[in-house]
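For the sake of clarity, the format in which proteins appear in this thesis is described at this point. The record quoted next illustrates the convention:

___
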Amino acid sequence: MHSGAWALGSKRHTVEHTVVAGRFLLRHAARMHHFALPPHTRAHCIVLPAAPLLLGGREVAGHADAAEVRLLVTHANMIEEVLPDLSSAGVQAARDTLVELATAVTHRGFDDVNIRLAPALAQAAKNLAEQRLADADLSPAMAARELNVSVRTLQRAFAAGGESVTAYIRERRLELRQALLASRLAVSEIAAHGQFADSSHFSRTFKQRYGLTPTEHARQNT
């Protein structure tokens, strides 16, 4: 639930559960039925096959920012974007991973050696990195801690896509610094903003990536 509150029940029974902003609820629905959100509320609803989850009559509730829930939502968003282009095998794989992640939510954890979770895990880490680029503590270890996985698991998730966690963070910071150069800040200020050790380190790293020092880049773009 992103905002507001949603009281879930049925016409024949009293309200069973109220989900408020910042919380999630995983429950079994006996059959598909139409529903509508109350006014001034915003929620993310995911419908999954019940059998693999083994919920029975249980309901699982908790914080929406739990690592497993964030991975589930991230993967669902990814599927929504690419679904029209997926083959039948791709649809099945996407469905299986959604079920795997939902099962993880029911157990409040997941199998961190299951490579099927790699795309969702890597994307969740990228989303986190985008929010924390200017944070001095941003690192593979911090991202892994926030997502409740081991650093090794996070590294494997990126490696599955031919990437490196460290390289991704460094690249995104360099791209941000490149944009800041247009603001004509001093190189030392940009280096500090990007959490580089000093301006010399920033200049060396920038030149390795772009073939020019920050000063030369700024001069060419003025």
Residues 168-220 form a domain with the Arc Repressor Mutant, subunit A fold (CATH 1.10.10.60). The chain has three domains: 1-63, 65-161, 168-220. The first helix runs from residue 67 to 82.
